[in-house]
Design brief:
With about 425 residues, the protein is an alpha/beta fold. It contains 13 helices and 16 strands. It is globular.
Amino acid sequence: MEQDSWKYIIINGKSQWLKVKNPTYEKGILSSIEDLKPFDKKKEDGTPIEPTLEDAQLEKRRIYSDFFKKAFKNILVLSGAGSSMDVGGLSMAQLWNKAEEKYNEKNPKGFKTICDAVNYKYEDKDLEKLLSQIEGFCKFSKDSKIKVAEDDEETPLSVIKEELFTLIKTLCTISEPESNFPHKILLEKLLQRKQTNPRVKIFTLNYDLLFEKAATAVNAIVIDGFSFTFPRTFSGRYFDYDIVQREGSKLKEEDNFIHRVFHLHKLHGSINWERNEENNSVEIHANPKRALMVYPREAKYEDSYEQPFFEMMARFQRNLRLNNDTLLICVGYSFNDKHINAAIEEALNQNPGFRLAVIDPGFDNDNISNSSLAIKKSALESERILMISESFTDFAKFYPEIKTYEINSLEHINLKND
C-alpha cells in the first residue's frame, strides 16, 4: 500500500502553513486534493466537513493576502523564467528541444553529433552545460569544425554557438497576451503605493520585454538605466534620477513625485540591447544585430561582472541590504543562479529588516534545488520567509490591492474625421 503524500501549499513560519494530501497537478497547477490540514470546519451537528480544493485555495490566498497587506517600505521583485512561461515563454528543457529540432532537420542525429564533438553526454539534455562545453572547446581546441549532416560543409563550433545564441534570442521574443496579462495585473497593483514611498524596483533575469509592455499598458514610466535621448544609452546614474511634478502642483517647496514610476533592472540583459563596438556603449535598438544578453552557460557568472550587468547586480545587492523593512518577491525563480542566491542568502543572514516571498507552484516538489530546499526549511522556522504554491498568473490575480489613491485607467480615444 502506497504511503499518503502530504505537500505544503504555503509556509510562513511555525504556525502559518497549509498541507494537502495526495495532490494532483495539471500543467504544474494544483488540480485536486484528498485532504487539507489544518482544517477544522464542521457542520451544525458537529460532523467534520471534508475539505475541497476550493477550501485549500481560499485559505492559502487569505494567508498570503494578509502578509502582503503589510506596509513594507521597500518592495523589490525578482522575476525568473517561470514568470515568462505563464505567457508563452519556454523552459530550459523546451529550449533544448527547439535546438534539437533545428539541427535534426537534415540529420536525425545532428544534435547528438554536436554533443559528441564536445564530449557532452547527450542524454543529460542540459542546454546550459552544452553551451559551456562548446565554449570551452572553442577556446582550447582552436575552434574545431564538425559536419552536422552529410550534405553540409564543416561548421566551426564558434558558429554553432552563435547559432544557438540567436535561437535563444528569437525564442525569448514573446508577445504579451490580449487578456490575463500577469505582468500588467501585478504591476498595476504594485504601483498603487503612495508616491512618497520608495519606488518599486523590479529585477528580472528574463530577456523579454514583457515588463516594458506591461508598463505601456498601465501608463507607467520605467526608469531602466538608459538615457532619455536617442539612441538610448546606458549609464548607472540614470537609476538615481526620478520624475517630479513642479509647476502648480504643490504649496510647499518639496518634491512632488508623480504616480506610476518604477525601476527595471535586467540582470541578464535584453533582446533589444546592443553594444556599440566603436565606443563600447550599450544602447537600446529595436532590432540589434547581436543582442547583449548573458546567455545560459557557466561563463554567465563572469559576464555578470562586466557592464552593464555589474551595475545591475550591484543595485540588486544594495537594495537587499536596505535595513528598513524590505520585501523581495521572487516570482518564477528556481534558485539555480549562484550569484543571485549569494546575495539573497546574505540579506537573510545579515539584514534583520529583510523579508522574502517565494512564488513557485512546485516549491515542495521532490526535485527542487538544494537552495530551494534550504529556503523551505528556513520558512518552516521563520515568519520572515513566505513560500506560496501559486502560478504567476494566479498570484497576480489574487495579490491584494492597496487603495491608496484612485486608479484612472486611460482610455484610447480616436478622433476620426467624417
